[in-house]
Design a protein that fits this description.
Shape: globular
CATH class of the largest domain: Mainly Alpha
Number of helices: 9
CATH topology of the largest domain: AhpD-like
Distance between the termini: 11 Å
Number of domains: 2
Helix content: 55-70%
Structural class: mainly alpha
Oligomer: single chain
CATH architecture of the largest domain: Up-down Bundle
Strand content: under 5%
Order of helices and strands: HHHHHHHHH
Largest sheet: none
């Protein structure tokens, strides 16, 4: 159970209209992480603005690959809440479920291109503690996506670095829809929601 109680949407109609309803329209739910963050509305506003900048439609790196970048960085950090959300985000951005489930085999799986392998290796290294990024990792990303691509991939890793710490520290409870979708996509993997499991599951 989440260690800090999420706000109730009905108590904050101004926040609901600005932040929660638009998210629900695309996902079918509002993240509990956002409902906790909303206790400090300026923080939530800054968080959402940064989200828009990090996942800019004009990015050089494809949106589906950036979702996988977030997933592997979250797996490296050990945040199963974010692993669930990024698995679902990858599906929304056109990544096949088989590819999401095979993510930890990206170095050998035929489902991944050399460009994707470069991005994912960089993300895994950047999401690890201590940081394991090498010059060779960076050069491989530059070869496929240029220096702008390095910035975009690292922005996603850093974005999830914040969320990994936030959700693991709070033991944020997964929303039922997010939990069910991730459970289906990741059923062939060792994913376990653990402390993030919805209380009625």
């Amino acid at each position: 159970m989440t260690r800090v109680t999420p706000l109730r949407r009905e108590d904050h109609p101004d926040l609901d209209e600005k932040f929660f309803s638009p998210y629900e329209a695309t996902r079918g739910y509002v993240p509990n992480s956002n409902l906790v963050m909303a206790r400090r509305p300026k923080l939530l506003a800054a968080f959402r603005a940064l989200n828009g900048a990090v996942f800019d439609p004009d990015n050089a790196v494809p949106a589906g690959l950036l979702a996988l970048v977030g997933n592997i960085a979250s797996q490296a950090a050990g945040c199963m809440y974010c692993v669930a959300h990024t698995s679902n985000n990858a599906g929304m951005r056109g990544v096949d479920a088989d590819k999401v489930a095979a993510l930890w085999e990206y170095e050998s799986s035929p489902l991944f291109s050399e460009a994707e392998r470069a991005a994912l290796k960089y993300a895994q290294a950047a999401g690890s503690v201590p940081n394991m990024v090498t010059d060779e990792d960076t050069d491989a990303v530059k070869e496929h996506f240029g220096e702008d691509g390095v910035v975009e991939i690292l922005a996603v890793v850093s974005w999830y670095g914040f969320l990994n710490r936030w959700n693991d520290s709070l033991a944020t409870e997964l929303e039922e829809i997010a939990f069910d979708k991730a459970s289906k996509t990741l059923e062939s993997t060792e994913w376990d929601a653990g402390k993030h499991t919805p209380k009625n599951r």
